[in-house]
Amino acid sequence: MTDTTLSTVGTVRPVPPLSRAIQLGVATCLILGGLLNGGLQYADHLLAGDPERRELLVWGLEHHAVYQAVWFGVMLSSVCLLLGLLGLAQITRWRAPRLTAVATVLTVLGMWGFGNVLAGTYVAHVVVPDVLGVDAAVTLVEDGYLKDWGMVAGSLVPHLVGSFFGVLLLAVACWRAGLPKVPAVLLIVFLVWDFALSPIGIVEPHVLLLVALVWLGVAVARMPQREWLGQSALPADPLR
């Protein structure tokens, strides 16, 4: 018979239905998010290099099937990332509730903008060059996406603000909650590198995202159920 309760000091708490399935689902989303976003964007960098926008669009048109598959996978990653990051927040909230609450709001906002950015990128980089040509795609990005207030307010700003600060705070919360510290640091380094710096040769920041999310996904999958449910955590720190 399967034991459906976890005992704590003086109490016996029932295990929520599908708890283990949800835990494994979160782990899977983190791993898939790392592979589909970090892995595919790093592969794209290795294949196409780091050219100017026009040269990149020309390369994508010449390798249309590969480019289409890569950016569809990256677009799909936004769903996995959102679910995986919310799953991390479920863990960190026991030790850093206030920090997690702020991080969660910013992360959801950022992932909304990020999904819009990825959808726009797919249209501009994959669909338009194939249908209307490279010149039209360059015009769409430079005179459309980057100047249209709706695209800026509905995708770029939420992504740049929400994703950066949301994931940054969530990485700090992971550190404080006792999750592996190396992937938490890698997430922070990735954010700074991706938002502010350029690739160094064949080394590109998304490889750090790949390693960090897969590492965290494995850690969540192997996490004892008591820890997943917050029943072995230390009391919450009121300053966190």
UniProtKB/TrEMBL annotation:
Q: Where are the transmembrane segments?
A: 21-43, 65-89, 101-124, 156-175, 182-200, 206-223
User: Superkingdom of the source?
Assistant: Bacteria
UniProt keyword annotation of Transmembrane helix present: yes
Keywords, alphabetical:
Membrane, Transmembrane, Transmembrane helix
Protein name, please?
DUF4386 family protein
Upper lineage is: Bacteria, Bacillati, Actinomycetota, Actinomycetes, Propionibacteriales
